[in-house]
Amino acid sequence: MPVNTGSKPDISREKSAELYEKAKNYFPGGVNSPVRAFKSVYGTPLFIQKGDGCFVWDADGNQFIDFCGSWGPLILGHNPAKVREKVIETMQNGMSFGAPTALENELAELVIKNNKHVEKIRFTSSGTEAVMSAIRLARGYTKRDKILKFEGCYHGHSDSLLVKAGSGLVTFGETSSLGVPKSFAEETIVVPLNDTAALTQAFAQFKDQLAAVIIEGIPANNGLLMQDPAYIEFLQKICKDNGTLLIFDEVITGFRLGFEGAAGYYNAKPDIVTYGKILGGGLPVGMYGASAEIMGQISPDGGVYQAGTLSGNPVAMAAGIAQLTELLKSGFYKELNAKATEFAEGIQRFATARNYKFKVFHVGSIFWFAFTDRDKIQCADDIDPASMEKFKVMHRELLNRGIYLGPSGYEVGFVSAAHTKIELEKAKRAILEALDIVFRNK
Ligand SMILES: *Cc1c(COP(=O)(O)O)cnc(C)c1O
């Protein structure tokens, strides 16, 4: 392929820009979740009008092949008929009762029958809520206060988890948001990923104080940071030896890497798991689960309080049931993962042949574009912030070629079942062109 050096003209964003100006009057930064504001890439955010299969259309009528998938939930693509029909059918009977429905049992059965790590679960309305509740459960169960998290893992926006590492190997968290009391952050210990020495030191220093260690089974919110299997094994052992519960936050990996998520991938045995995103089929659902014994601590059986007006909402349950039913069909993950692997490896082969400092890290149907020449990136410090400038250029070139990636180089992308080989081939070509432009002055 000849080296491509021509940028395409910018797509029209007139209507999106107009909507964005309006939105700024109503919402801080014009958005209801910060990354949507396009602060790390060029131009105004695109206002999406419609999605179908692997495509989205913005307010200006531009069409894109979408690899953001609403940040993960849309493993079947946009607006799949099976999910839509079940949702509409369910809505005919009303939208919320605040009382139990059979649909909750049905979704719970789909989850529990196919996941050996959970005997009982509780549905919430978001991943953040699920994680926040799992932490409370761990504290209630162990009667300990401190938790340990990893730099480079995201667990939603609850106070205890909006903390980052200070300087040093094992640190009390420093708040990463205004409004989080320092005293809260001090209950969270932060260590780097994939580092057994740091874990050993933390457990020595906070002996008998750690209620839980929380990790994204495969960290995928700050790049894709694959952990060594031996490290995950070590993590399990040190938790067990110290009476500390291990929480696998599978909000992004759950049902993405199969029904047992990253735990299944590593053959690990977390004590508590949290799910969200795919579980809700595009509607707001989260969940945490554990053994019957641990879940026995949750109110009204036990003393750990947790509740929700819309928890187990029937319409959201219906979407989850329809989506998970599709995922259970034989060969679903095999086919999806094979497609995604071919896509990622094709791009990598091209970049390698051109000698570009660019890696496609991938697992299952998750991929991450990293502007690096490292063979592995396993902790947050391995990511060079300066490389994000290259992502920014790539993002613009891709939008101009009809490809939509999440608007930040720290975010992973997702291949869905709705991406056909034809569209993946199209996307690949656009990505190769964009890479040529990013590296034209290398
Ligand atoms: C998305 C995500 C969350 C937060 O879920 P929300 O539904 O956005 O609150 C928590 N943990 C992980 C691993 C996630 O990917």
TrEMBL record:
One of its GO terms (cellular component) is cytoplasm. The modification N6-(pyridoxal phosphate)lysine is found at K277. It catalyses: (S)-4-amino-5-oxopentanoate = 5-aminolevulinate. It comes from the Bacteria. Its cofactor is pyridoxal 5'-phosphate. The keyword Isomerase applies. Keywords: Aminotransferase, Cytoplasm, Isomerase, Porphyrin biosynthesis, Pyridoxal phosphate, Transferase. Homodimer. This is Glutamate-1-semialdehyde 2,1-aminomutase. It comes from Pedobacter lusitanus.
